[in-house]
Amino acid sequence: MLDPTFINGGIIKSFSSNAKLGAGEYLIAEADESDKSFLMLQPSLEIITNIDDDHLVNYQNDMHNLEKAFLSFIKKLPFNGLLIACGDDPVIKKLAPLFTRRTIFYGFEETNDYVIRNYKTEELTSQFTLWNHEGKSFDLKLNLSGKHNVLNATASSVLALEEGISLLNIQTALEKFSGINRRMQLLGRLDKTYLIDDYGHHPTEIKSTIQALRESFPKEKITMVFQPHRFSRTRDLFKRFVEVLLMVDKLILLEIYSAGEEPLKEVSSEKLLKHIKEMGSKNSELAGSNEEAIKIIKSSILNEGGVLLIQGAGNISDISEILTKQLRENGRN
Question: Nearest-5° angle of CA 191, CA 228, CA 68?
Fold first, then answer.
């Protein structure tokens, strides 16, 4: 029995915790580049899923500095260490010639060492085949939907295979994995509406979630309640936020959650909404508070059906908790 120790950012549903002390030889940690703390670790094995332009305030607002930090992180590996990296990610592709440790690449693109094929999704589950250049292939089922989740499952599977863990154990773990709180979490169905809760607050994350929900619920309209997180992030990624928020059928936009930052005159939810409407959105509105958003949800959204996506990393989670409480009360009636 492996029984690893783990330290994770989100709450793993099957353990109701983000950390556990195990009796096995492995310690698995979710490293954090946002505050450079990942450079304090001394890993034996690493997985890098992507490198994106976030948290640049801690890198002198220079993407090049973030890239250099990741190269330093790779050098933290011992000379016989192993890096598992997503070969589909454009920044990882760019930096790959500078990697100084043995690297195995994975992804959907055929140039990777491990290639994802035959991907398909059914409601909130996925199936795919993992193929490598030695001609070996493995059929896997994941109890989550979305290409981003399949990529993450592939990364962990490749590392497990390299560590000699049996294919049967890998297949069983993926099929039984119940997910992480607030990571495209299905809360239930309230009236006619599917309730989904998601922590993502960067355009890349939000886009992945919307695309996964389109695959899982192809006939349903998606309503998103979104709370931008940090004035600096909203300013720096303004155009990308506009583009990704146009992907939903209806948008309820909350005020920006400061996360301790001082307000910036040049950015606000009002300005974000204005640009979204100018780009063609005809079904977007601003909610001045969580309470106002809940009133909108209860007065119209729940009766319309479809998918309601609660999206963001601030106190928007309070909305999810209120709706979850209503789900429980309905279940008792």
Answer: 130
177 closest CA partner among 222, 125, 212: 125
Alpha helices in 146-304 (DSSP H): 147-162, 167-176, 203-216, 231-236, 238-245, 269-278, 290-296, 302-304
pTM, 2 dp: 0.90
Task: Tell the residue number behind the tokens 């063609």, with chain if given.
Answer: 280
Give residue-wise pLDDT tens across range 50-75: 999 888 888 998 999 999 999 999 99
CB contact set of 113 (below 8 Å; sequence gap of 6+): 87, 104, 105, 106, 132, 133
Residue type at position 180: I
CA distances to 111, 228, 238, 250, 269 from 276, rounded to whole Å, are: 37, 14, 10, 11, 10
Over the stretch 129-150, which tens digit does the pLDDT of each residue have? 999 989 999 999 999 999 999 9
Judge whether 6 and 29 are in contact, CB under 8 Å: yes
Structure tokens at 147: 């290409």
- Tens of pLDDT along 274-331? 999 999 998 999 999 999 999 999 988 888 889 999 999 999 999 999 999 988 887 6
Confidence category of residue 332, pLDDT binned at 50, 70, 90: low
- Look-up: residue for tokens 């390299």? 162
Q: Which of 71, 77, 208 is nearest to 149 (CA)?
A: 208
Closest to 248 in 3D by CA, of 202, 307, 184, 304? 307
- pLDDT per position as a tens digit, 260-272: 999 999 999 999 9
Tell me the C-alpha distance between 304 and 78, whole Å. 56
- Full set of structural domains in the chain with CATH: 5-115+145-164 (3.40.1190.10), 185-332 (3.90.190.20)
Q: Which residue has 């606000």 as its token pair?
A: 268
